[in-house]
Amino acid sequence: MPDKELLEEELLREAADFFKALGNDTRLQIIWCLSQGEKSSGQLAEAQEMTPSAISHQLTLLKQLKIVKVKKKGKTRLYQLADDHISRIMQAVLEHYQED
To answer: Where is the HTH arsR-type domain positioned along the sequence (predicted)?
Structure first.
């Protein structure tokens, strides 16, 4: 990434949207669950004791923000983190708040 004093407007907006997405407990739990491996929306809904449609709504947003990706396995859609950057960010934040 070039050394610039200010971020380009599009990159700045995408980064801001990313952090807004992390400002929601449900989405953070989804990211945490997916950092442990791919899961279906049903598995995520069960783990969080939420309806599949509520989880599906959150997954759609996370997909639009390029935080999660989906693959089809037969009729099942499996969700996973888009890449390792997401789990590293989550781990760094958790470590920060677990320090004494």
So the answer is: 7-100
